[in-house]
Amino acid sequence: MKYINAKTILPEALIEELQNYVQAGYIYVPAKEEQRKSWGELSGYRKELDKRNRKIRAEYDQGISPEDLACRYCLSISAIRKIIYQK
Questions:
Q1: What CA–CA distance (Å, rounded) separates 84 from 13?
Q2: Separation of alpha carbons 23 and 19, rounded Å
Q3: Residues 54-63: contacts with CB within 8 Å, 24+ apart?
Q4: What is the pTM of this model?
Q5: Which terminus of the chain has a smaller tally of CB atoms within 10 A, N or C?
Q6: Which of 66, 48, 46 lies closest to 57, judged by CA?
Q7: Which residues contact 14 (CB under 8 A, 6 or more apart)?
Q8: Distance (Å, whole) CA 26 – CA 47
Q9: What is the pLDDT along the chain (87 residues), one digit of tens a residue?
Q10: Phi, psi for 62 (deg, rounded to 5)
């Protein structure tokens, strides 16, 4: 996240009002609900995980055991089971 000096983008009156609540600190301004991105959407990591999980489920359906899948994907058996049963 990039920090921006309030003086460069906000009117003086708004800065003075904000200083009544916080001075020399950081304020996080969240995005509007309709502009929010879900986790992993920007980086593409969510798609990578979905692809990996589909592959794990397909291999399980072909008869590969959860233990073997755990070793193959460097995940715990518990994590593999969660992926398999989330169909």
A1: 56
A2: 5
A3: 56/80, 56/83, 56/84, 57/83, 57/84, 57/87, 60/84
A4: 0.57
A5: N
A6: 66
A7: none
A8: 32
A9: 678 899 999 999 999 999 999 988 888 888 787 777 777 777 888 899 999 999 999 999 999 999 999 999 999 999 999 999 986
A10: -85, 0
